Fold this protein.
Amino acid sequence: MRGHQPVPVITVDGPSGAGKGTLSHLLADALGWHFLDSGALYRVTGYACVLEGVAWDDHPSVVRVARHLEVAFTADSAGEVCVAYKGLDVSRDIRTEQGARGASTVAVIPAVRQALLQRQREFRQLPGLVADGRDMGTEVFPDATLKIFLTASAQERAQRRYLQLLEKGENVSLARLLEDIEERDARDSSRTVSPLIPAEDAMVIDSSRLPISDVFSAVMKAARERGLA
Ligand code: C5P
């Protein structure tokens, strides 16, 4: 045991579209803590493969890309996070459906997860970290002070994504989105390394019928009870 307190961490895990990103940002802002978007690291890895001409099923080459990933997160003046790969702004490219597919395809490779592990832990800096992902509470920060597993029905998540894309002017089919979400959920929860499951000590919240403000209040209450806020 070292003689000092570890940097506090709140982990927010769960499937895509459950509201993890929104909740995590609200928490990081309220607490004045750092923020780790671990999904972005997997997305950049998948997209970097496309840019480097590496096929997602060429595992040795994908692992090499992950090990040498030159990625930088910066906030612009409006507070929007910009993600750059080798100095190239890939923020939009990684948020597409192709970006999501690439991420969840490369994320099943154990050596890719291993390569990204240390990088994720480097985000643990004072005064604290809110970590958003799938395996934050189980693998990356198993000693986190507070672990949240935020979920919602696939139907509800597809609906939310549909509205988001419509707002962006993208024309998509709700049925297709639901199919993609179910496919991705199955891949994420059935993989042998770091499957998407709640940590034993996680607080599980179903946001299907809860506004995000209520979820946020419940988590802040739990944070206060643990002396984090
Ligand atoms: O959270 P986001 O939708 O950006 O994640 C994209 C994909 O990256 C997920 O579907 C999942 O396959 C993978 N991922 C992961 N472990 C994490 C974060 C994301 O496997 N901690």
Summary: The mean pLDDT is 94. Residues 8 and 42 are 24 Å apart (CA to CA). The first strand starts at residue 9 and ends at 13. Residues 174-190 form the longest helix (17 residues).
